[in-house]
Design a protein that fits this description.
Length: about 220
């Protein structure tokens, strides 16, 4: 009954969304990322507790989120940047409602699972039914947010590298954005080249504004 499958970030975990709205996960479970009320690893699929009406699934190996039929979100696992909104607790092994969010659609962008690659923890972001972006938890870069929050007609968001996001709009256009700033100089070029190129950046483009990726036909999924 699998309708969507999400793999962990090279951590050996995976989660599956079923057609009946339930979620099953398997693999490592040191932060409760399997969502079954334990921190015991499982080599066979276990059900995520308390979710029976999920319409989308997001999972990065340490954290998971589901958008429910009513537009609310439940998340579980490692509490990076307090994205679970439960204070100082390191993790939750069962899904909790994200109190600040409602009217969400599509997948939630969890970013990357490994905190060691950056001193700042990226916020968790989703798309509202209104077509606008909503972010919570982590460190929200104000300059980036001032511009990205003005985007409209967005239907999907994705992120799989530090400080970088891509947005799909209802017309099939893809915009990508990063909070990283790229400066002139050989050392900076070596350090930031890959991070900026993966979101369509021109060298030394010093703005967080989302840019349109050229040369793509109308996109259906990102």
């Amino acid at each position: 009954q699998v309708v969507d499958l999400r793999l962990g970030d090279a951590l050996g975990d995976l989660c599956a969304l079923r057609s009946d709205g339930r979620i099953q996960c398997q693999g490592r479970n040191e932060y409760g990322q399997l969502g079954n009320g334990t921190v015991i690893d499982s080599s066979t699929p276990v059900f995520v507790e308390g979710i029976s009406n999920a319409v989308s699934l997001s999972f990065d190996g340490l954290r998971g989120c589901a958008v429910l039929e009513d537009g609310f979100a439940k998340c579980w696992g490692k509490n990076n940047g307090d994205f679970l909104e439960i204070g100082a607790a390191a993790y939750s092994d069962t899904p909790v409602y994200i109190a600040s969010q409602q009217n969400l659609v599509g997948n939630i962008a969890l970013g990357i699972a490994d905190e060691s690659v950056s001193e700042e923890i990226d916020p968790t972001c989703g798309v509202k039914a209104s077509g606008q972006i909503s972010c919570w938890g982590g460190t929200l870069n104000e300059h980036w947010w001032d511009e990205v929050s003005q985007l409209t007609n967005i239907v999907a968001i994705s992120s799989n590298s530090p400080h970088s996001w891509c947005f799909l709009d209802s017309f099939g256009g893809t915009r990508c954005s990063t909070t990283e700033r790229k400066f002139a100089g050989e050392d900076s070029r070596n350090q930031w080249q890959n991070r900026n190129d993966n979101v369509g950046r021109t060298d030394y483009y010093n703005s967080p504004m989302a840019v349109t990726i050229s040369g793509l036909p109308p996109v259906k999924k990102i």
